[in-house]
Amino acid sequence: MVTENTTSERDRIVEALTGEWSAIRELVSTFDENDWDAQTPCPGWSSRDIIAHIIGTESMLAGEQAPASRGDTPSFVRNEIGELNQAWIDHFRGAEAAELVEQFDQITRSRDETLRAMADEDFHAESWTPEGKGTYAKFMRIRIFDCWMHEQDLRDAVSAPGGMDSPAATIAIEEMLGKFGYIVGKRASAPEGSTLTLRLTGAAGRTVSVAVEGRARYIEDGPAEPTVTLTMPAGVFARLYGGRVAPAEVTNDIQIDGDGELAQRVLSELAVTM
């Protein structure tokens, strides 16, 4: 059933995703040859590999067949999705930056047109996603997260911070925080009755609290005295979540109040995507 809420959410997702493609395009327009070859925090990938990856994923969503693998799988590739990603990167290996930009422009323009032309019923229909069964809308939220994380990879590679105050950043943070209860309760094995408040600072910042009561759940009003409070910039949280940095590398950016042992367990389990 199509409602005003589903339509507005669809518009929010599409505008954030297409806006993120524009932000990436604007960023790489400033790159010189050294920037294109710079190593990003994403293991094994240069700036040009990041763009090749985005082109490849959007091409598959447009119905194109993934290219065949070109040899041995690198050690940093850990699953089938990673193998598909690497196949596209290998496919574009050796392409000039101008060719990559042209391909990026073509596929994002095509995908923009497709998304805007979709009926609401199709946009919110059941679909496979990288996280399992979901909806196409959920898949596009994951695309926003992925593209925004890669924008941050590109920015880190060329020391050009930014991109934290966009609609894509907001949705990307929402996607990450959606896993926070699982991280606290399941992965970090927070004890029964414990509470944890996470304060993310900066333009994309927000505060959430989790209570462990049988299983970890979000609570509307944060406790006056949580078992642990973690405070850090939203960008640091994103990099930990994406496995781009280890907790020991960003110690000075993280404030811990309360149970230090539990805090360290949570921090050590934050790397959800690699």
TrEMBL record:
This protein's name: Maleylpyruvate isomerase family mycothiol-dependent enzyme
Pfam families listed in its UniProt record: MDMPI_C, MDMPI_N
The UniProt record lists the keyword Isomerase: yes
Keyword set includes Isomerase: yes
InterPro entries: DinB/YfiT-like, Maleyloyr_isom, MDMPI_C-term_domain, MDMPI_metal-binding, SCP2_sterol-bd_dom_sf
Coiled coil start-end: none
Keywords per UniProt: Isomerase
Provenance organism: Dietzia timorensis
Domain (Mycothiol-dependent maleylpyruvate isomerase metal-binding) ranges: 19-155
One GO molecular-function entry: isomerase activity
Sequence ranges assigned to domain MDMPI C-terminal in this UniProt record: 180-265
